[in-house]
Amino acid sequence: MKRAKVYKEYFADATFMSRHLLDGGPDPEHEQYKIMILSHSLEKGLSYRNARVFGRSKAEDLMARLEKSSPETRTSSAFSIGVEVLRSWTDFIKSRENDVQAASIRGRLDALIEVATPSDRGFRGGVATATQLDSSSWKELPFEDFVRGRHSTRRFTDLPVSDDDLQLCIELAMRSPSACNRQMVGLRVFDDPKSKELLYRTLHGTGGVDFDTCRLAVVTFDTRSLDFYGERNQGYLNAGLFAMTLVYALQWKGIGSCLLQFGNTFAEERALAEGLSLQPGERIAVGIAFGVPEPDGVVPASIRRDISEVFSVR
């Protein structure tokens, strides 16, 4: 009976997700999420080491979505972010070659802004220079500055991350909330070239990551810890809490990191789990690249939405 309820609830989850999936639906929220995904994809490309001319089709898609966007979207943070990222992208293209398509997009962008000027929220999309601090400097910052200073890092030096620092960060991450204190989450770090290559090819978002100098890992959870259908997503929640605390702990020790999305099929996950010799009940929640960051590295600006768009009291 318990297992039948698990099947029933997962089927309901699948039905719900299929109904609301981001596939170009009519809601303004669909528009805005698609704009932000495209914007961040261009930002990541701009942050790559030795970035080459790229992204024409994505820039064209983003421009078209901005032009066709609803009135609600034109007053949103997503619209402003999209405009600023396209500004940065066209500046990047023009600095490297005389690109007719980029010039056309820039002209259309300027015309769009004249009609629908986004509110001035201080958006400066594209990329930013992240000044790296050593661990002693991070410790002196007020908490709000420490949190605001976090960013995803894809550029790493060849300096090693000490095992002592890593184990301290894991110990701190283990202080994250855990359902009934079951502590179901694990961190699996892979330094051997074969496992790293397998992870690099399988995880999403590895583009631009300094493969040779970073360390690669996955955050997992043990399905054997889950008890009933209501806990079907509990492992992912616990893994997310652990991963975020780990990222902050790494930052506190002057170690850069980038969480890498695991959005693969079940078959791909099982093949990866077998290749990495994970336990039979272990599931992968998210990947992570980490290492000593490059000083003054270029990172995606990743501007956040306005607080009014994510906060409400009812």
UniProtKB/TrEMBL annotation:
Keywords: Oxidoreductase
InterPro entries: Nitroreductase, Nitroreductase-like
Superkingdom assignment: Bacteria
MF-aspect GO terms: oxidoreductase activity
Signal peptide interval: none
Span of domain Nitroreductase: 147-200
Listed Pfam families: Nitroreductase (PF00881)
Entry's family note: Belongs to the nitroreductase family.
Protein name: Nitroreductase family protein
Lineage: Bacteria, Bacillati, Actinomycetota, Actinomycetes, Mycobacteriales
